[in-house]
Task: inverse folding
């Protein structure tokens, strides 16, 4: 069984356009920003936009749609005002996900600053709970693993599992595995080595669990394992390499998840057909 494969696509000109852009490049799954990733302002789409999106989804047959939250969101911040703004913005993106009928919203857990990591975990979980309470529906709120470093949370599956356990709403939560972030955080330094990959998969499955991993961000890494330096690279051109992706694909561990590319693109114009072709070949 091969998972749904696709990419992050631009939603410029209307979210429905992203579905056609993805379809044109051969995507079976897409990810979009429901609103600007660099602003605290996020407006709900109008009725016409929603209708156009639902129609386009049917026409294109795109199997999975995920939204990516704004980069500014930090539910674990040591500054209450920033937490409040983050929560409000994340809830607004969640409401957009619900309006569009998206499968979920992916967000980064943020930095705990001057607090302890366990404070950050507790605050993130509390924020997630309030977001879910304020936006009823079916879309899942997914925690993405990060490249860690400094006081950044979510660089390992134990922290993600702790946050998910504390939220306690398995129907509406889950996680997203970013292959580059896992490599950069140092929780896996060689996907192509069977022993290393096996240990990583066992660690992931015994903490967050494969079944709770609904999306995979398929990205190669420009930086070395353990660098804590988040720089995505085209599939096969980075330090993970084609053999690494082939091994992860071949493991079958995430075959139920939607795999989306967040790579710079061959022409630096974002995820493209060539990267999707390279990823697809890893499943052959
Ligand atoms: Zn990612």
Result:
């Amino acid at each position: 069984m091969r998972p749904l494969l696709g990419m992050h696509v631009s939603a410029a000109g209307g979210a429905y356009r992203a579905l056609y852009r993805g379809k044109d490049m051969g995507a079976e799954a897409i990810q979009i920003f429901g609103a600007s990733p660099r602003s605290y302002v996020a407006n709900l789409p109008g009725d016409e936009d929603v209708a156009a999106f639902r129609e386009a989804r049917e026409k294109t047959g795109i199997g999975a749609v995920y939204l990516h939250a704004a980069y500014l969101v930090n539910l674990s911040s040591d500054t209450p005002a920033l937490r409040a703004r983050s929560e409000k913005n994340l809830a607004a993106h969640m409401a957009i996900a619900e309006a569009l009928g998206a499968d979920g919203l992916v967000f980064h857990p943020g930095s705990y600053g001057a607090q302890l990591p366990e404070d950050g975990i507790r605050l993130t979980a509390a924020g997630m709970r309030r977001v879910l309470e304020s936006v009823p529906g079916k879309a899942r709120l997914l925690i993405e693993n990060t490249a860690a470093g400094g006081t950044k949370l979510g660089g390992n599956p134990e922290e993600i599992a702790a946050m998910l356990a504390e939220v306690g709403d398995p129907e509406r939560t889950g996680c997203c595995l970013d292959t580059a972030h896992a490599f950069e955080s140092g929780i896996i330094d060689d996907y192509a080595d069977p022993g290393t990959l096996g240990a990583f998969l066992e660690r992931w499955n015994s903490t967050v669990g494969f079944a709770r991993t609904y999306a995979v961000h398929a990205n190669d890494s420009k930086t070395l394992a353990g660098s804590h330096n988040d720089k995505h690279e085209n599939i096969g051109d980075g330090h993970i390499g084609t053999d690494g992706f082939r091994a992860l694909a071949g493991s079958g561990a995430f075959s139920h998840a939607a795999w989306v590319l967040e790579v710079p693109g061959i022409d630096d114009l974002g995820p493209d057909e060539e990267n999707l072709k390279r990823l697809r070949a890893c499943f052959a």
